[in-house]
Amino acid sequence: MADTPLTINFAMVLMGLSLHVLIWEKLPDWGTWFNTLISQLPKPLAYLYDAWHCPYCFGFWVVLMLHVLTGQFTVLSLEVMPDYLGVAAEPIAWFLDALVGALLILFGSLLLKAVSGPALTGHQKVMAFKQAQMEKSD
């Protein structure tokens, strides 16, 4: 493992980040059906929905889930673990991979928020300028 170069599978991170944006930032605003569904969840599941707003917390569990579903790792060098770890190698690899994936999902979420604020402000200013120009020409 020490000789293996660090290669990151960003597909896992992008899938996790996309799910986070969809579940916590988009679906609640797309009509009332999603919020009604969340309000009907059993208390433990409703708690998880409330608690997992944090991209890092959500990221950890979603990377584990995506690993189970796809068989892929975020950190490709974790696919081959040292033999001396025995049966503990696979759970350790999954845990470490989920930690890295969670950190990258948190970073991606912060990056999206940092970029979207100025981009939205710029878009609003351009639209206001265009509107003002149209009003002047009328």
Write up this protein:
The protein is mainly α and 138 residues long. Helices cover 71% and strands 0% of the residues. It has 5 helices and no strands. The chain has helices spanning 10-26, 33-39, 43-51, 55-70, 89-137. α1 (10-26) crosses α4 (55-70) and α4 (55-70) packs across α5. The longest helix is centred in the last third of the chain and has 49 residues, at 89-137.
Provide keyphrases for this structure.
138 residues; mainly alpha; flat
Task: Walk me through the topology.
Elements (H helix, E strand, L loop, with lengths): L9 H17 L6 H7 L3 H9 L3 H16 L18 H49 L1
Summary?
By secondary structure, the protein is an all-alpha fold. It has helices spanning 10-26, 33-39, 43-51, 55-70, 89-137.
Q: Give the termini separation.
A: 69 Å
**Shape by Cα distribution:** flat
Largest sheet: none
Helix content: over 70%
The helix-and-strand class reads mainly alpha
User: What pattern of helices and strands is seen along the backbone?
Assistant: HHHHH
Strand content: under 5%
What is the mean predicted local confidence, pLDDT?
Answer: 87
Total beta-strand segments = 0
Alpha plus pi helix count: 5
